[in-house]
Design goal:
The protein has 285 residues and is an alpha+beta fold. The chain is built from six helices and 19 strands. The protein is globular and about 50 Å long.
Length: 285
């Protein structure tokens, strides 16, 4: 399933992307929780009802795509955990022993149809293309072989970053925390839709030019290991998001030198089998 959070002029709730538009799960499957996170964390019997509704969508409950607005599928995660330098080739160093973990605040999250707003206090705003994990079941001190059982689905996250603010101290958090710096979506894709988690293409385009291209087969710490590692410390809860890191930009892009985001830019991030997240960039009001 490809679960979304949608809004119309008179209602909002969880939906599923289908060929004809967005299936309104609240009407197609009465009793469905009122959010994507609720669906992911629901009992198996509830998820089975939702799956049957999505497998044979009733046209009466399908909303045309141009009549709905897609919101962030997880609008306010309990936590956003991020992994730095998690693709081989992102640095010249050998593989680290442990993941490099930092966080972003939930207040940075925006949806797939919202802009990235450039803050007036930063002149060096950049983008990062990331496969994001959405936790579906409580996970605390889980072993790596069982870690994926706690994943509800996968989505796309743009870890927008103010590089100048990252250099203000030894920690990166402030440079990652401006409002609109965590575009998320458009859908949470359930694990059964992913044929090979270890071989997904991760790509970024700016104004139509491909600037970044990698594969999850180059992850230093794969998803199961990250989930297990974090769960040794924190109790991961349904709706928590883990951003798994970004591949390095292509060499010809690096050779040109930094090109920071400007008003009018369009950043598209695609993770194969998961989706494309498209964000316009605007100046501060």
């Amino acid at each position: 399933m490809r679960l979304v959070q949608f809004a119309t002029a008179d209602r909002q709730g969880p939906g599923a992307l289908v060929d004809a538009g967005v299936l309104d799960l609240g009407r197609a499957a009465p009793g469905t929780p009122d959010s994507v996170v609720g669906v992911l964390g629901a009992e198996a019997s509830v998820r089975d009802v939702v799956r049957r509704a999505v497998a044979a969508p009733d046209p009466a409950h399908v909303l045309p795509s141009d009549e709905v607005r897609l919101l962030a599928p997880v609008p306010r995660p309990g936590a956003i955990w991020c992994i730095g330098y998690n693709y081989r080739g992102h640095t010249a160093q050998d593989d680290p022993e442990f993941p490099d973990v930092f966080t972003k605040p939930a207040s940075a999250v925006v949806g797939p149809q919202d802009p990235v707003v450039l803050p007036p206090v930063s002149a060096e705003v950049d983008y990062e293309a990331e496969l994001a994990v959405v936790i579906g079941r409580h996970a605390h001190q889980v072993p790596e072989p069982a870690a994926l059982e706690h994943v509800g689905g996968y989505t796309v996250l743009n870890d927008v970053s103010a590089r100048d603010w990252q250099r203000h101290g030894s920690q990166w958090t402030l440079g990652k925390s401006f409002a609109t710096f965590a575009p998320l979506g458009p859908a949470v894709v359930t694990p059964d839709e992913i044929p090979d988690l270890g071989n997904l293409t991760v790509e970024a385009r700016v104004n139509g030019e491909t600037t970044l291209h990698g594969s999850t087969r180059d992850l230093v710490f794969p998803v199961a290991r990250i989930v297990s590692y974090l769960s040794q410390v924190v109790a991961l809860r349904p709706g928590d998001v883990i951003a798994t890191g970004t591949p390095q930009k292509l060499q010809h892009v690096l050779d040109r030198g930094p090109r920071w985001l400007r008003p009018g830019d369009v950043v598209e991030i695609t993770v194969s089998h998961v989706g494309t997240l498209r964000s316009g960039v605007v100046a501060p009001e």
